[in-house]
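Page 42, continued from yesterday. The earlier attempt failed because a stray header line got pasted into the input along with the sequence. Redoing it now with the clean sequence only.
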Amino acid sequence: MSGPQPVLTHAQRVCRLYKRALKTTREWEATRAEFRFNATVLRARFDETRKEKDMRVLAKLLENAEHELWQNQHPDPFYYKDDPNGICYRRETSVHDFLFDTWHPWEKVQARDFFAAREELKNDYEKYFEASLTKKYVPEPQIV
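This time it went through. Structure tokens are written below.
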């Protein structure tokens, strides 16, 4: 990641650590019951330090916990399909509609039905735009 890193408070770092630790626990456990048991154990470990007031001790505990999480990370982490590193991430490329206007007429002949329907849709959109949108956003005349 390039650029400056965001400045996080201690509470933000602890919340992010807990969330990452919970996801890592879910990745390691085979069944939902094992995950729920280990999630409650994880929560108890976090709750043990709630009463600590010395920030130096808390900072050291946080560093140790982040290191422990890094050591225990899963070798094949779970990704949702549309997230970065997921199997569908950036799979669908968006085709800009104006590019069809640059096709040569000989190319357009090969897909007559598509281009006929497209021209009809373009005409319908023009009529809709002229009928409704141009009247909605007309600025009121200024009285001087």
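Notes: The chain has a mean pLDDT of 89.
Reminder to self: strip header lines before submitting.
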